[in-house]
Design brief:
The structure is a single chain. By secondary structure, the chain is an alpha/beta fold. It is built from 6 helices and 6 strands. α3 links the parallel β3 and β4. α2 (46-59) runs parallel beside α3 (75-83). The longest helix is centred in the first third of the chain and has 15 residues, at 19-33.
Amino acid sequence: MRVAHVCMDPGVGPERHKGAAIHVTAIRKALGEQGAEILAIDSPEPKVVAHILDSAHAESPLDLVYERYSLDAVAASRFAARAGGPHIVEVNAPLRQEAQRYGGAAKEPDAGDTDRSVLYAATQVLAVSSAVSRYVLDMGVPPERVVIEPNGVDVRLF
């Protein structure tokens, strides 16, 4: 199985040493341990992500796009729609709410339309808690496509 794991959040690249970056690396490792061939894509640039996805898929079809939810990131969603394959979006936090509260993001009513469209189009949305699940459901994602899957700990590291 060929899996594209996409992270468009510029603050979460795998070279970083914060928890989110460690989580991205751990997810990729876990997928690889299950036998998946991982195409790791870490770029905040939509054109770069789209080009990598299109090129990889033309070489050999991708079976799954697994994306870490990032604000205003649509490249993976658009690719999955074009390619007709499954698209899983992992949501770790209510990013739009956090950005509005702490980061000065736009507070207009349509500020989250891009995020809403990505989440709504996903084949499945993984929420890491019931609170994050409520955020996703409030964005309009049908409940049957939302799964609560708490982040885990790799006990082998301890």
